[in-house]
Amino acid sequence: xxxxxxxxxxxxxxxxxxxxxxxxxxxxxxxxxxxxxxxxxxxxxxxxxxxxxxxxxxxxxxxxxxxxxxxxxxxxxxxxxxxxxxxxxxxxxxxxxxxxxxxxxxxxxxxxxxxxxxxxxxxxxxxxxxxxxxxxxxxxxxxxxxxxxxxxxxxxxxxxxxxxxxxxxxxxxxxxxxxxxxxxxxxxxxxxxxxxxxxxxxxxxxxxxxxxxxxxxxxxxxxxxxxxxxxxxx
Amino acid sequence: xxxxxxxxxxxxxxxxxxxxxxxxxxxxxxxxxxxxxxxxxxxxxxxxxxxxxxxxxxxxxxxxxxxxxxxxxxxxxxxxxxxxxxxxxxxxxxxxxxxxxxxxxxxxxxxxxxxxxxxxxxxxxxxxxxxxxxxxxx
Lengths: 234, 138
Known about the structure:
The complex is a heterodimer. The longest helix of chain A has 16 residues, at 215-230. Chain A has one domain. Chain A has a 9-stranded mixed β-barrel with strand order 1-2-3-4-5-6-7-8-9. Chain A has 3 helices and 9 strands, in the order βααββββββββα. Helices cover 15% and strands 29% of the residues of chain A. Chain A is of the alpha+beta class. Chain A starts with 18 loop residues before the first strand and ends with a helix. Residues 1-23 of chain B have low confidence and may be disordered. Chain B contains 3 helices and 7 strands. The longest helix of chain B is centred in the C-terminal third of the chain and has 11 residues, at 125-135. A 5-stranded mixed beta barrel of chain B has the order 2-3-4-6-5. By secondary structure, chain B is α+β, with helices and mostly antiparallel strands. Classes of the chains: A alpha+beta, B alpha+beta.
C-alpha cells in the first residue's frame, strides 16, 4: 500500500516515491545489471548526431575510457536509465523531489509549483534542469538545459528535452515497483523521439553508500609528493 | 625488492610536470573470461572508489615482490560482503583476479578470502562457466 502525501496546489494527495530503489528483475528471471550505460539497439541518429558520436568513439578508440572512469557522472538520461546496480534514492517533498544516483553521487532536483526556476535563471549541465508536475498519480518530469553529450549511449545535443513519467505499481508477487517512461526529443541528434521504460524495485529500509570517487587521484598525488620528498630532484 | 607498478606507470611523469593527476583507467586491460588465485600478505589496502587498491606481497619460485592490484568499487564490494576492517596490512589473503591481457603479473580483484576466512566479492565469469560445466557433467 502506498502512502499518499498531501500536496497543496498540486491537486491533492499523490504517491510517495521516497526510498531507495534498485534494479528491478521480473519474477522468475535472473538478476541482471543496471541497464543504461552500455550497449543496445541502434538509435535513430540524424546525420549530425551520427557524425559527432562517431568522432567521439574514434577518439576513445579501444581505450575503454568513460566519464565514470574519470569520476564524472553519466548525465541524463544515462544517469537515470543506468541506475539500479548502484541504487537510487528519492526524497520527496511537495515542492521538491531530490533524486540521488549512488554512482558518482549524481543528484537531480525536481522542482514543482512555485519552486520551479525561471527559464532565464537555469544553468545548463549534464543532468540539466528538471521541473515536475502531477497528472493524477503520475509524476511528470521535464528536463531541459542539458549540455551536448556524446559520451553516453543516449548522446544528445544541448537542444534535447527529456520527459519522464513516474508511477508506482506492483508486480505479480505484490512487490512495489517504480516505473518511468522516458521520452528523449532532440531534433539535432535524432530523427524521431527515443523512448525507454525503466523499472526499479523498492529496497525496504535501504541506504545509499557514499561514493567519493576522486579520493584515489588525491591519494596518488600525495604518494607522488612523498616520493619527491624522499627522492628530491638533483 | 622488485616493485611491480603496472597500473600507474605514467603517473610519476604527470606528477613531476605538475599536471593534474589522472588516477583513472578502464578495465579493458583485464581478461574477465579468465580467473586466477593469488595468495600473499597485504602491504596496503585501500577501500576507495572507483576501484579498491591492494598491494600484495607475493612469494613463490620467482621470488618475493609486491603486486599492485585494483578491484571493484568499494560500494559494489560492500554489497558483495565487504565490511570495514576485513582486510588489514599484515593479513595473509587470497584474491581471485581477472588477469592482465598482456601477460604481466597482477590483475583485477573480483573477490577475496580474508585472513579470518571471510569471503567477499563476486564470482568471476570464468568460475561461473566452470561451475556450469560441472553441473552439466562436462
